[in-house]
Write a structure and sequence with these properties.
The complex is a heterodimer.
Chain A (H helix, E strand, L loop, with lengths): L1 H21 L5 H7 L2 E5 L15 H10 L4 E2 L9 E2 L2 E6 L5 E6 L12 H11 L18 H7 L13 E5 L2 E5 L7 H4 L10 H6 L22 E7 L3 E6 L13 E5 L4 H9 L14 H7 L4 E14 L5 H4 L1 H9 L3 H9 L4 E2 L21 H10 L11 E6 L2 H18 L3 E6 L1 H9 L5 E7 L6 H4 L16 H9 L6 H18 L2 E12 L4 E2 L15 E2 L5
Chain B lengths: L1 H28 L13 H10 L6 H12 L6 H5 L3 H5 L14 H36 L4 H15 L2 H15 L16 H35 L2 H8 L4 H13 L1 H24 L5 H11 L2 H29 L7
């Protein structure tokens, strides 16, 4: 009898197993969608989750779920102000003093978020011992630069001299070096995000870079999500934060970030139903996705420029403005973008990307092979005769290679000159670029905030990111003067003048304005195109399919 | 035997010092540093960072202090089993430059078990496929059962894992939907068995090359042995083919296979780098590759040192097994 039952039950088990085996397996994405979990392939592993220390886009994606600054990201409009920790703010008549009124909000450990916490956080990043890479962002605060530079010296400036004051628990006053209407926009950058002073002090103090405070067991934030678990190189999960001031708006139950660096791997995973969103799409797959699965492909504008740096300090030929102009005019950017790269990029006939409200962008030059040939002849190289052999350096990647080859071809056909190309491993390439050990070098720049300044600032004389050897006193004067201009209109005019000089001198050759292309599952809602890929994650929603 | 092991372990020290020195010189002489980035870190910040990580000292000071830090100072087997090198041997591999606040010790302790599991499963599978396949081929020399496994083995040897991996992912993952295409653990899994499907493709990809090699070696070894007089004697005694093969022939026929295991272990460990990249496995191999690209000096040195020591020790173990299984050899 016993035996009999055993046989029958095991038969039942086998049948059940067989049945479940036959049914199509639910994918991770289907299960996660039902449970309100967003599965996000997030590029590389975050280096740090400390807003005053971190750099990088994958870091930003995580930090912006955990911590909220005075101003939050608007769900659709990049330039609009979305209230964050500050319920409202006002400026004085001169426009250089901002007063922020904080709402009643809590840290995840129950502490109230106060103006003193912001004061501490800004003091922390301005402490040179922390070595926060984005410290320059805060130099718009009055005396902040002097404070930073005087620490450790003979006469350190006292913190009271710096333009940050917590008037009381709920009021924060920030005095700037000059009136700046774009200041609230800058506050969206994570270098301005607060940290909880008690937690920082409990884990090594203000300038400790030991990463202890943001480990899952210690992390304290004030954002729509809180850190749940984090296994290096595997998964980082955040879950809805019930103590967040606007918790009722938060739609997702949790977000799982997967660090996947290989584009091919994340694409396979997406197609197997493993993630809702990929970081990128391999360039060569864009066309086939467009044709076969247009509903999953997203191409968003991006506030970034792809360009070539020209080393004006190494060779006489490239130091000649006419040669640089000839090189610039002989690139058919429209054809390059439409026939070669094919990712919806915008041909760049200017340096600052379009889309910045109030800043007029115009085409400073156009594709003009005739004029290019004329300029080159004028410089002494009719039909490219006698032009020396230069080379384009790029960091190893299929895409950069393809672009370099195309431009090489265009220069050969239009100008009759032979330019070589070579690739370098990433860090070697960076090193060569900063040592001016190149002729022409591929480059890219993504804005830190939505303003032309974040693009134009780097070409001032001796700027660490200039890397071209180019220097122009009139340009420097405009760039240094612009922040002090007072009103936005005058400021933008000055920046516009600066860009005109840059586009006349052309120490850089703009090529195209970036787009971000990635795969996004159609069930993910409210995922709007954003110029800086910043999203207020509390609005993101998953809609399970109706069956 | 103890003397043999002792001497071999002693030889480990100069070898590792040479490896550290070479790696140190190489990693520090390539252009670029851990903090170079497209958006340049300003001079003053870079200075502070170098100070923080001890990179502002003269190179020879850094070199000797590294040697001092990685010298074993104690022995605690319980901690060693957890791959805790700090507690286990007093080895301090320093902080990682790439992962803020993490030490190289932690990263190794966290990721090596994954690589180890992957490698161990792959070797086991390679043995399970390779030895029976080779034996069957040898027993059925010049018949279909010889040609079929041997041509498959040729195939396995010829296809590199970076081709095989994505191919398997495409066929078994995307088309047939049998196994997940990436990851190591089921994201929401409660039981260990939930993770099993994640292991299939990487383990299979990694093992096939070695299974093929093992099959060919086994066949060769067995063919030689099967012609020996003592095998004929065993058959003459009336023993069944099964007994003759398993009890008499295999023991001698597997000797080339076992001596091949040393290179197999080294190969599986280094081969897993590629597999870990393809299948997004959070193992030490990924650190090994990324560390070099990130100029994460301490992580490069730490992983090189760790792998070197591991491969030497595993080879030692293989040598010991060789002596135990082959009475003709002696410890010396």
């Amino acid at each position: 009898m016993g035996n009999h039952v055993f046989t029958r039950s095991s038969l039942l088990v086998i049948t059940l197993l067989a049945l479940t085996g036959c049914e199509p397996r639910k994918t991770d994405v289907e299960i996660a969608t039902e449970r309100g979990i967003l599965l996000w392939a997030n590029g590389s592993e975050p280096k740090s989750l400390d807003p005053q220390v971190a750099t990088g886009v994958p870091e930003n994606h995580v930090i912006s779920s955990l911590i909220e600054g005075l101003i939050a990201y608007h769900p659709t409009d990049d330039t609009a102000i979305e209230p964050g920790m500050a319920e409202r703010f006002e400026t004085n008549n001169a426009g250089n003093v901002y007063t922020f009124h904080l709402r009643d909000a809590q840290w995840t450990n129950g502490d109230p978020v106060t103006a003193h916490d912001f004061d501490y956080s800004y003091r922390r990043i301005l402490n040179p011992a922390l070595a926060g890479e984005y410290v320059n962002m805060l130099f718009v605060i009055k005396n902040a630069k002097d404070y930073y530079e005087s620490q450790g010296g003979e006469n350190p400036l006292p913190w009271e001299e710096v333009g940050v004051k917590a008037l009381n628990d709920n009021t924060l006053e920030i005095t700037l070096v000059a009136p700046m209407s774009y200041f609230p926009s800058m506050l969206k950058h994570y270098s301005w995000f607060p940290v909880n002073p008690r937690v920082i002090e409990a884990h090594g103090g203000m300038t400790a870079r030991n990463g202890q405070w943001y480990q899952p067991e210690n992390h304290v934030g004030n954002g729509p999500f809180r850190l749940k678990n984090w296994t290096t190189n595997q998964i980082l999960e955040v879950e809805k934060n019930p103590t967040y001031w606007d918790a009722k708006t938060v739609q997702l139950n949790s977000i799982r970030y997967f660090p996947i660096e290989s584009q091919d791997s994340e694409n396979r995973l997406f197609n197997a139903g493993g993630v809702h969103k990929t970081n990128e799409i391999p360039l060569h797959k864009i066309e086939s996705y467009k044709a076969e699965n247009p509903e999953v492909i997203r191409i968003d504008p991006y506030l970034g420029t792809y360009f070539y740096r020209v080393n004006v300090s190494r060779n006489d030929e490239l130091a000649d403005k006419r040669v640089r102009r000839a090189l610039t005019l002989s690139i058919d950017r429209k054809s390059l973008v439409e026939n070669v790269i094919r990712g919806g990029q915008i041909p760049a006939h200017y340096f600052v990307p379009q889309g910045i409200k109030g800043y007029s962008s115009q085409d400073y030059f156009k594709y003009d092979p005739e004029e290019a040939r004329r300029l080159l002849a004028e410089a002494g190289y009719p039909n490219g005769e006698g032009f020396p052999h230069f080379e384009i350096q790029y960091n190893t990647s299929e895409q950069h290679k393809t672009i370099a080859e195309t431009i090489q071809q265009m220069w050969k056909e239009t100008l009759g000159i032979n330019i070589g190309i070579y690739n370098q491993e990433w860090k070697v390439y960076l090193d060569a670029q900063s040592n001016l050990d190149y002729d022409i070098s591929r480059a890219g720049w993504i804005g830190d905030y939505v303003d032309p300044y974040t693009f134009l600032e780097m070409f001032t004389t001796g700027n660490g990111n200039n890397d071209t050897g180019w220097s122009n006193p009139a340009y420097d004067k405009l760039i240094y003067g612009a922040p002090l201009a007072g009103d936005t209109e005058r400021r933008y005019t000055m920046l516009n003048d600066a860009e005109t000089i840059l586009m006349d001198e052309l120490p850089i050759i703009p090529i195209y304005i970036y787009t971000r292309f990635y795969l996004l599952h159609p069930l993910v809602k409210n995922w709007n195109p954003k110029l800086l890929d910043n999203r207020n994650l509390k609005y993101i929603k998953l809609e399970p399919t109706v069956q | 035997m103890l003397k043999f092991i002792f001497i071999r372990l002693l030889q480990l020290i100069p070898v590792l010092i040479v490896i550290i020195t070479l790696t140190f010189v190489m990693v520090r002489s390539i252009p670029g540093g851990p903090f170079s980035a497209e958006r340049k870190v300003s001079e003053h910040v870079l200075e502070k960072l170098n100070e923080h990580y001890g990179l502002s000292d003269p190179l020879y000071v850094q070199y000797f202090s590294y040697l001092k830090n990685v010298a074993p100072k104690k022995m605690d087997l319980a901690a060693l089993v957890r791959f805790d090198l700090k507690e286990g041997l007093g080895i301090d591999l320093g902080p990682s430059f790439r992962y803020e606040g993490r030490t190289v010790n932690e990263l190794i302790a966290e990721s090596f078990p994954v690589s180890f599991q992957l490698g161990a499963m792959a070797i086991l599978l390679a043995l399970l496929i390779g030895i029976p396949a080779g034996t069957i081929a040898a027993l059925n020399k010049n018949s279909t059962f010889d040609y079929l496994p041997m041509s498959l083995a040729m195939f396995g040897i010829c296809l590199p894992s970076f081709v095989l991996g994505p191919l398997f992912a495409l066929i078994f993952g995307l088309w047939l939907d049998w196994f997940p295409v990436s990851g190591w653990r089921a994201p929401g899994g409660f039981y260990w068995s939930d993770n099993l499907p994640y292991r299939v493709l990487p383990v299979l990809t990694l093992s096939l090359y070695y299974a093929a090699g093992l099959a060919r070696l086994t066949r060769g070894g067995m063919l030689e042995v099967l012609n020996q007089d003592y095998i004929r004697t065993a058959r003459a005694k009336g023993l069944s083919t099964w007994i003759v093969t398993t009890k008499h022939a295999l023991r001698a026929g597997l000797i080339p296979v076992i001596s091949y295991l040393g290179p197999v272990i080294a190969g599986v460990l280094s081969g897993s780098f590629i597999i870990e990249m393809i299948f997004q496995i959070p193992g030490l191999g990924r650190h090994f590759i990324n560390a070099a690209a990130n100029r994460d000096y301490t992580l490069v040195l730490g992983t090189v040192l760790f792998y070197a020591a591991l491969i030497i020790i595993l080879n030692l173990i293989v040598d010991i097994i060789m002596v135990l299984i082959n009475p003709k050899l002696k410890f010396e």
